[in-house]
Design a protein that fits this description.
The chain is an all-beta fold and about 210 residues long. It contains 1 helix and 14 strands, in the order ββββββββββββββα. Strands 1, 2, 3, 4, 5, 6, 7, 8, 9, 10, 11, 12, 13 and 14 form a 14-stranded antiparallel beta sheet that branches.
Length: about 210
């Protein structure tokens, strides 16, 4: 694709400092209108580094704007973010029921994220309004993360807000989770978290 170095004036707002440390960003689009680069800016409009350790991201996309990869940079220098990852590469199931992502370092090698995984795989069941999130090892096989969680089940509502999440170990035993109370406008009214100590003393959590 022929890149179009066109900065989006609408995307750059200097009035309020964001939680990530920037005041806005500038976007670069390709000839198909897909965003391929995002440069984060300070109050004066100059490139600035976020708290996560990078000042810009570069995006690879299909002509349909599907994300294929995201990479992290300080100016033009490749860097890792605060999760120890330089690049995330995405692949998608042909039937639209899931995707996988792999974490790479600045040399293009598999790298471990802070949660102990090298990537993740997601299966989506739209009928059950459920997506199941698996952690992957260095050869991208399903493997527990640093907290011995193998996978998470997440239920969503018609607006794709997560309303319930449960984490399971390698024995498929429920370890922890939370429920969320969300109103018809998508606003959270409350939540309830539970861990293994609560689960073991309450029969309602038995599978």
């Amino acid at each position: 694709h022929k890149d179009v170095a066109e900065f989006s004036k609408r995307a750059l707002k200097y009035s309020v400092k964001h939680l990530e440390g920037n005041y806005g960003y500038k976007s670069v689009y390709d000839s198909y209108g897909c965003e391929i680069e995002r440069v984060f800016c300070d109050k004066s409009g100059k490139e600035c580094c976020l708290y996560e350790g990078f000042s810009r991201i570069k995006l690879e996309k299909t002509v349909n704007d599907d994300l294929l990869s995201i990479s992290y940079f300080k100016s033009e220098m490749p860097v890792i973010n605060n999760e120890s990852v330089h690049k995330i590469v995405f692949s998608y199931a042909s039937n639209g029921t899931g995707y996988s992502c792999k974490y790479l370092d600045c040399n293009g090698n598999p790298t471990k994220c802070k949660d102990g995984s090298y990537g993740n795989h997601v299966d989506i069941d739209f009928d059950e309004k459920l997506f199941t999130f698996y952690y992957l090892d260095s050869i991208y096989e399903k493997s527990p993360n640093s907290e011995n969680i193998l996978y998470q089940k997440n239920w969503f509502d018609s607006r794709y807000n997560i309303v319930k999440s449960q984490s399971f170990d390698i024995h498929h035993k429920l370890v922890s989770g939370f429920d969320m109370d969300i109103n018809n406008h998508g606003l959270m009214l409350g939540s309830r978290e539970y861990d293994s100590s609560i689960i073991s003393n309450n029969k309602m959590f038995e599978m």
